[in-house]
Write the structure tokens for this entry.
Amino acid sequence: MEQYKFMTLGRHIIEGEKMHPEASGELSYLLRDLSLAAKVISLEVNKAGLVDILGFTGDNNIHGEKVKKLDIYAHDMLIRAMDYGGHLCVMASEEEEGIIHISKKHKIGKYVLLFDPLDGSSNIDANISIGTIFSIYKRITPENTPGAMEDCLQQGIKQVAAGYVVYGSSTIFVYTAGQGVHAFTLDPSFGEFLLSHENIQIPKKAKIYSANEGNYLYWHKGLKKYIKYLQEEDKETGRPYSSRYIGSMVADIHRNLLYGGIFMYPADSRHPNGKLRLMYECNPMAFLIESAGGRATDGKQRILEINPEKLHQRVPIFIGSEEDVKMVEKFMAEADVEKTVS
């Protein structure tokens, strides 16, 4: 069994910054504050059924979706944990329509934080893994001024760090600063995230696909052909694939990051722009998966190169093992050519 170093998340970040003498240390403190929020949210998730926190608040968020009590708790906790540190100029959350300004009582920093406070929250009552997704950029507006919308609407390729926290059988903090992907498991006995997976590399090809096949009827013709291709038996190409779909992006991608595979949330005839949010879900996950050697596209274009037009923009996504993502792109491109010819 591989032996891991006794390395905390905080120490790991500091050790990484030692390799970059120009680093100011601010990013380290920012990630530390995020890990603190994750610990508090994890505690609340684990006791949710005991403190009457499950269920709906009765309100809808800006997307018209019912808001769970735990969504609001996670959203508020992240803001409270990140507002005072002096490292941020602005924040944005999937749960709020506009940007979140830093209180005038606190120092204005040079970083921007976007987050989905509780991805997969529809699974809360069923005790299925859920998670927090985060994305960090450097501001592009002048320093010592309030952050603006343009700070938030940057291409994913400009992220300086991104990651997620999965709350499941254990709580795991996964992050990248663009050079390697590392995972830290929370030891509840003394409240520290300890290095459990170092320099994760997603397999180039695997035998797992993740998609909500209940939407099959409405999919692109090429995607339908791809799914049927995966289900056919062919030992030479390692088919059929196994279907694994949890319905929580964090949980599905965490599994595929470790074992390989492809996660798909495509556009369909009812949702031509897809359903997942570019800034809160797709960009951070794409940055992380690419840092682990994977691939992420909307079927044609690299996710990280999409120019965002609005804060809650939705896009299709195909993300995971490089060869698997390239294969679905091939099927969809061929179907488009057939359609043009006919």
